[in-house]
């Protein structure tokens, strides 16, 4: 936001999904060389993948509203993060690294699997 105005926004039809639009937002903001601290989105973007994509690709803190019945994704807990990093130890996964490094490592692995 610049003041009360959004930097980038899309409107989609009611039957379209929000999450598939996120990559377009990320690409547009990177093209603008946007320097963001926060990225706000409505609850339609509330997913572990979307949170991690915003954090990794935009270096911004995702601020995404969630429903009252939302649940915490176990894959986002430290124990599960360490599990996946440890499974990749042969290619550089280090469970003793700082959490930020572990998350960046997993995001790089995710990018290679796309």
Gist of the model:
The protein has 2 domains: 1-71, no CATH class; 74-112, no CATH class. The chain has 114 residues and is mostly helical.
Q: Care to describe what's here?
A:
- The structure is a single chain.
- The protein is mainly alpha-helical and 114 residues long.
- It folds into two domains: 71 residues, no CATH class; 39 residues, no CATH class.
- Helices cover 39% and strands 7% of the residues.
- It is built from four helices and two strands; from the N terminus they run αβαβαα.
- Strands 1-2 form a two-stranded parallel ribbon.
- Strand 1, helix 2 and strand 2 form a beta-alpha-beta unit.
Strand order of the largest sheet: 1-2
Number of helices: 4
**How far do the termini sit from each other?**
30 Å
Strand count? 2
Structural class: mainly alpha
Shape: globular
Instruction: Tell me the number of structural domains.
Output: 2
Layout of strands and helices, then pairs:
Layout lengths: L21 H10 L6 E4 L6 H11 L2 E4 L13 H10 L11 H14 L2
Parallel strand pairs: 1-2
Helix pairs in contact: 1-2, 3-4
Keywords:
114 residues, mainly alpha, two-stranded parallel sheet, 4 helices, globular
